[in-house]
Design goal:
The structure is a single chain. By secondary structure, the chain is α/β, with parallel strands linked by helices. Strands 2-1-3-4-5 form a five-stranded parallel beta sheet, sandwiched between helices. It starts with 5 loop residues before the first strand and ends in a 9-residue tail after the last helix. About 35% of the residues are buried. The C terminus is likely disordered.
Length: about 190
């Protein structure tokens, strides 16, 4: 058995599973593949999965259903969606750690997985901030900020993001995923800089 962390990638497109596994070849991690949600759950039940990267729309058991099952276990893995499903404001209530909309680049994908491995060592406030910032970036890729701000759910989400940002002490973080999220969806008042 290896001490390397384990990442599960679940997608019903075999070519994407191969591509994602290749992209993770440079990361010191065990990679497990699942072609559907049921197989993803079986892998999580069998072993120590640290990070689960799920497509939302898979046969038999959807990514959302896998997420719900994994969240029943407090010691479950970090969960990210990498999906073609266009996010709507409802993702602010999903208990996910990251959200990327396909197509994704090798750097985006690898940075996200490495960031999720590292987030265990972050203070809870920073971890929650990064989780919410990821959702914000995904939403801003699919809708304009002015349209989103008209939604009361999104407005409350932005207020929570601002509260978290104000509670984060300056802390140098070498995290390309966080840096990309700040560049893509951060605002001046949502910065980790002092």
């Amino acid at each position: 058995m290896t001490d390397a962390p384990c990442v599960l990638i679940a997608d019903d497109e075999p070519a994407l599973l191969d591509l994602y596994a290749t992209w993770l070849g440079d990361i010191d991690a065990e990679v497990v593949r699942a072609g559907c949600g049921a197989a993803a759950l079986a892998h999580c039940d069998e072993g120590d999965v640290d990070v689960a990267v799920l497509d939302r729309h898979m046969p038999r058991v959807s990514g959302d259903e896998v997420l719900d099952a994994l969240r029943d276990d407090p010691a479950g893995p970090r969960v990210a969606f990498v999906t073609a499903a266009t996010p709507d404001v409802d993702i602010v209530d999903l208990d996910i750690d990251a959200y990327l909309t396909k197509p994704v680049s090798r750097d985006e994908f690898g940075d996200m997985v490495e960031s999720l491995f590292r987030r265990e060592s972050l203070p809870e406030t920073v971890d929650r901030y990064v989780e919410k910032l990821s959702k914000r970036v995904a939403l801003l890729e699919s809708e304009s900020q002015s349209v989103l701000q008209a939604d009361p759910i999104y407005s409350a989400f932005e207020a929570e993001l601002s509260r978290l940002a104000s509670r984060i002490d300056y802390r140098p973080l070498d995290d390309p995923y966080l840096n990309r999220a700040l560049a893509d969806g951060g605002r001046d008042d949502h910065s980790l800089d002092p």
